[in-house]
UniProtKB/TrEMBL annotation:
Any one GO biological process: regulation of cell shape
Positions of ATP binding: 110-116
Descriptive protein name: UDP-N-acetylmuramoyl-tripeptide--D-alanyl-D-alanine ligase
Location of the region described as Disordered in the Swiss-Prot/TrEMBL record: 453-476
Keyword Transferase: no
Domain Mur ligase C-terminal, residue spans: 321-440
Organism name: Candidatus Faecalibacterium faecipullorum
Primary site of residence: cytoplasm
Primary gene name: murF
Family label: Belongs to the MurCDEF family. MurF subfamily.
Length: 476
């Protein structure tokens, strides 16, 4: 964060006359341990800790201003900014800060693929100048302002992921970030329990337009029926991408999955045709790369430069991370799951080169009344996807197991991570592949860790046995 006039940063939160002329702020923090002289500390009431309990500590560390939901003993009145909603305070400061700079901002939302698309965008743009991006899961009303505070005078591009659980949230994020370019990857079933229908989800995603200027390009997936039939705001300019239709502005063809990623042809109506290779598996990642390509071109990149830079893409977190564990390939895709992403993962896995395919699938959450039907549909999909053995985890996933077993798939339902790990460590062999996928709250990465630990222990025991045999041979 670069120093900014306190009057500018705090505009809308407290009267300007309360702030001394010439006072600047170089840090906004929600962690009292990071408080420093001249900073703004924002207290958040939490499930386990309440930031208000640490507000006096922040003042003692030199905080110039403390944003509180209520007065706190030990925090002087002249340092207190009362705001009933700490998230609103962060968003207000984030918007005030962002307005002082002029990077090209790309906002990314959608039910599936927004993080990967964000990473493709950042990879494409980084070659042309300093680029910041949303890190981790910082895509909400707390995380987005934190990302905006990373903008500096030399920042040329900012790629911002925007998530939501309820209507209105994307609108607030967009009005704060003011994207020059927007991307909506697709409309899935995530959060349908809160929003009621995919039509409502589509409306919520289209709120990204609320902060975009007139004439701004909105990158849209032509293959998504809900986006294709949506009523788009008149002030944005749609740019369509597709993997199935030549009617889109940019489309992909000759799609081929290889050992180290995907190869395909981009047909850009304005710029021509280009061969592309991306270091990511699955047709769904071709769609993500197409969206990023469109955004990069709209941001001013030459097509060949954008394509070259996208080769620098790397998966983040637990998204399709491929590990080799004693000859067994583990595809750790545990960050999240919904029907659309499950379908994409199984399509990728079907074409993945291996001897046998083991799929560990856990509950897909936040599906509301659609949960049972979607987990049963997943069981039918597994039966069509070339999976040799299905291991399920979670109460909803029991329905997946029941349907898949009825369709002839060998199926095991596990009650805990230890059961998953023990089974896989026992039956898998070099050349096999295991896909782990489930909603974030199911924490399937623990099963991955336990499986690998068992494989390591077995390999170590085998090595020790061989050493003992060698020693016996030498004695003889």
């Amino acid at each position: 964060m670069e120093p900014i006039a306190a009057k500018t940063l705090l505009a809308g939160l407290t009267p300007a006359e309360r702030i001394p002329d010439g006072q600047t702020v170089a840090l906004v923090t929600t962690d009292s341990r990071a408080a420093a002289p001249g900073c703004v500390f924002v207290a958040f009431p939490g499930e386990h800790f309440d930031g208000h309990d640490f507000a006096a500590k922040a003042v003692a560390a030199g905080a110039a201003w403390v944003v509180l939901n209520r007065p706190v003993e030990g925090v002087p009145e002249d340092k207190t900014i009362l705001c009933p909603d700490s998230y609103r305070a962060m968003m207000q400061m984030g918007a005030n800060y962002r307005a002082q700079f002029s990077p090209k901002v790309i906002g990314v939302t959608g039910s599936v693929g927004k993080t990967t698309t964000k990473e493709f965008c950042a990879a494409a743009l980084a070659g042309l100048g300093p680029t910041i991006k949303t890190e981790g899961n910082q895509n909400n009303e707390l995380g987005l302002p934190r990302t905006l505070f990373q903008i500096g005078a030399d920042t040329r591009y900012a790629v911002l992921e925007m998530g939501m659980n309820h209507a209105g949230e994307i609108s607030r994020l967009s009005r704060c970030a003011k994207p020059d370019i927007g991307i909506i990857t697709c409309i899935g079933l995530s959060h349908i329990g809160n929003l009621g229908s995919r039509e409502n989800i589509c409306k919520a995603k289209l709120e990204i337009c609320d902060g975009m200027p007139a004439g701004a390009p909105l990158i849209l997936n032509y293959d998504d029926e809900y986006l294709r039939k949506a009523q788009l705001p008149a002030h944005v300019r749609p740019v369509w991408y597709s993997m199935t239709s030549q009617e889109a502005d940019v489309c992909a063809s000759a799609i081929r999955q290889e050992d180290d990623g995907m190869s395909f042809l981009i047909d850009d109506a304005e710029n021509g045709c280009f061969m592309v290779h991306i270091p990511a598996l699955g047709r769904h990642n071709v769609a993500n790369a197409l969206a990023a390509y469109c955004a990069a071109i709209q941001a001013g990149l030459e097509p060949r430069d954008a394509i070259k830079q996208m080769k620098e893409f790397r998966q983040t977190g637990m998204r399709q991370l491929i590990l080799d564990s004693h000859g067994v390939k583990i595809i750790e895709d545990c960050y999240n799951a919904n029907p659309t992403s499950m379908q994409a993962a199984l399509a990728m896995f079907k074409d993945y080169p291996c001897k046998r395919r083991f799929a560990v699938l856990a509950d897909m959450l936040e599906l509301g009344d659609e949960g049972r039907a979607e987990h049963e549909a997943l069981g039918r999909l597994v039966a069509q996807s070339g999976v040799d053995v299905l291991i399920t985890y979670g109460e909803l996933a029991r329905r997946t197991a029941t349907v898949a077993a009825a369709k002839g798939v060998r199926t095991i339902h596990a009650n805990n991570y230890d059961e998953i790990a023990a089974f896989l460590a026992k039956v898998t062999a070099p050349g096999d592949a295991v896909l782990f996928k489930g909603s974030r709250a199911m924490e399937l990465e623990h099963a991955v860790e336990k499986m690998r630990a068992l494989q390591d222990a077995a390999a170590q025991a085998e090595d020790q046995a061989e050493d003992r045999n060698d020693q016996d041979d030498r004695r003889e």
